[in-house]
């Protein structure tokens, strides 16, 4: 994080305008890494592996943005108080969704030109005619039509960008005038937004990841994606708050009490993720319908059963035991480590959803390497977008009528 302008006698509360310039370096490095990964995929004949790795990277940064958006909407919808001090950090995170939209454009172009390197159904459309005789695919052909797919994608990103920008715009205006009226406006908008969010998140997960295996379906898949996304966004918010404090920002405003509540929400979504993952697996295993079990059959090959077992421990059991205690959740250094852990296992979770769908014989290690390379690149671009959005803004809503209550907040 770049240096920040000192706006308070006890702490820094406003980001420097130079933060945008400082973000250019990770942004350019990120673009370079994406270029290197694409070159490896093209020159080494690993294009399908690269396509899946690139989708993984885009979904990872998208999940952080939409997770931050839900924090903002949920905060206003519930009339939250304690989260006021970290709300601006989540608003800025949500404001990066436009970058995810730009990163998804190459995938959209590939679908529209009929490439099946990522989505096998995309290559079954020839001159507007669906050519497969597979009865399951034909039953989904209207939905899995490239132009309709592209239209839905534009709608998802358009809605998320509109929601994130509306909330950030109203929040920034609240810093300048009419704080009570702005607070009421944001709370009013949160109602319809949460419904739009729920629908768009579900269908986006179906379109972008579940359709990698078009025979398979799960009505719980959208909730599964949401659970991991919100948990990852909470972890990122905690890490950003701690990083800001290491630079002298928000040292008095974001206290152990606020970090403790972020940790409690993280813990809740560790448990919720485990519940959703187990419920989805149990129902599919119990029904034993071939087109439903296919998705898990693929994940019983090669390294993937061990990867899945790693998620059971790494995403559920270890963090469940690791920061179950109140003392651990109030330990700043420990929770910084756990937040970083959760971001890593969130990436592993998305990799489990995307990478086993590579349909050519290949070295899984190469695919994972491309996944790490593309994710590092996408995160560099994400960091640039975050820093550019934060530049010059207050790092907390300084005129929000709930801020005094948030600053004096104590857990009981």
Summarize the structure.
With 412 residues, the chain is mostly helical.
Cα end-to-end separation? 33 Å
Shape: globular
Rounded average pLDDT: 94
- Compute the number of helices: 16
Overall SS class: mainly alpha
What would you report as the Rg, rounded to the nearest angstrom?
A: 22 Å
Helix content: over 70%
Tally of strands:
4
Q: Tell me about the biggest sheet?
A: 2 strands, antiparallel
Strand adjacency order, main sheet: 1-2
Question: Residue ranges: pLDDT <50 for 5 or more in a row?
Answer: 1-8
Order of helices and strands: EEHHHHHEEHHHHHHHHHHH
Share in β-strands: under 5%
Give the SSE map:
Layout: E1 4-5, E2 14-15, H1 19-22, H2 24-43, H3 47-77, H4 84-94, H5 97-112, E3 125-126, E4 129-130, H6 135-139, H7 146-174, H8 179-208, H9 221-246, H10 256-287, H11 290-298, H12 304-322, H13 326-329, H14 332-354, H15 364-390, H16 403-407
Antiparallel strand pairs: 1-2, 3-4
Helix pairs in contact: 2-3, 2-15, 3-4, 3-5, 3-7, 3-8, 3-9, 3-14, 3-15, 4-7, 4-9, 5-7, 7-8, 8-9, 9-10, 9-14, 10-12, 12-14
């Amino acid at each position: 994080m770049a240096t920040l302008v000192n706006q308070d006698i006890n702490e820094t509360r406003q980001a420097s305008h130079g933060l945008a310039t400082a973000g250019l370096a990770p942004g350019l490095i990120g673009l370079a890494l994406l270029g290197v990964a694409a070159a490896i995929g093209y020159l080494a004949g690993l294009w399908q592996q690269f396509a899946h790795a690139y989708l993984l990277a885009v979904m990872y940064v998208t999940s952080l943005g939409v997770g931050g958006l839900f924090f903002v909407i949920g905060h206003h919808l519930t009339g939250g108080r304690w989260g006021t001090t970290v709300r601006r950090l989540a608003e800025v995170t949500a404001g990066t969704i436009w970058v995810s939209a730009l990163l998804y454009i190459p995938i959209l172009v590939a679908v529209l030109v009929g490439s099946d390197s990522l989505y096998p159904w995309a290559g079954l459309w020839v001159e507007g005619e669906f050519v497969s005789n597979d009865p399951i695919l034909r039953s989904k052909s209207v939905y899995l039509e490239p132009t309709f797919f592209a239209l839905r994608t534009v709608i998802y990103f358009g809605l998320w960008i509109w929601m994130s920008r509306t909330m950030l715009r109203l929040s920034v205006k609240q810093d300048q005038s009419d704080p009570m009226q702005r607070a009421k406006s944001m709370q009013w908008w949160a109602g319809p937004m949460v419904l739009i969010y729920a629908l768009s998140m579900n269908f986006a997960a179906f379109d972008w990841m579940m359709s990698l295996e078009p025979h398979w379906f799960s009505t719980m898949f959208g909730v599964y994606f949401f659970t991991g996304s919100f948990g990852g966004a909470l972890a990122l918010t905690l890490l950003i708050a701690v990083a800001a404090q290491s630079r002298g920002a928000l040292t008095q405003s974001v206290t152990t009490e606020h970090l403790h509540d972020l940790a409690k929400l993280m813990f809740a979504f560790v448990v919720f993720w485990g519940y959703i993952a187990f419920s989805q697996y149990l129902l599919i295993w119990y029904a034993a319908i071939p087109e439903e079990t296919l998705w898990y059959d693929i994940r019983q090959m090669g390294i993937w059963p061990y990867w899945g077992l790693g998620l059971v421990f790494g995403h559920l059991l270890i963090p469940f035991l690791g920061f179950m205690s109140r003392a651990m959740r109030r330990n700043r250094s420990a929770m910084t480590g756990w937040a970083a852990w959760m971001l890593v296992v969130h990436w592993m979770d998305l990799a489990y959803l995307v990478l086993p769908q590579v349909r050519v014989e290949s070295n899984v290690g190469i695919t994972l390497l491309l996944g790490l390379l593309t994710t590092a690149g996408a995160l560099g671009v994400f960091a640039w977008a975050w820093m550019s959005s934060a530049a010059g803004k207050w790092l907390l809503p300084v005129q929000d009528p709930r801020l005094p209550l948030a600053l004096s907040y104590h857990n009981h």
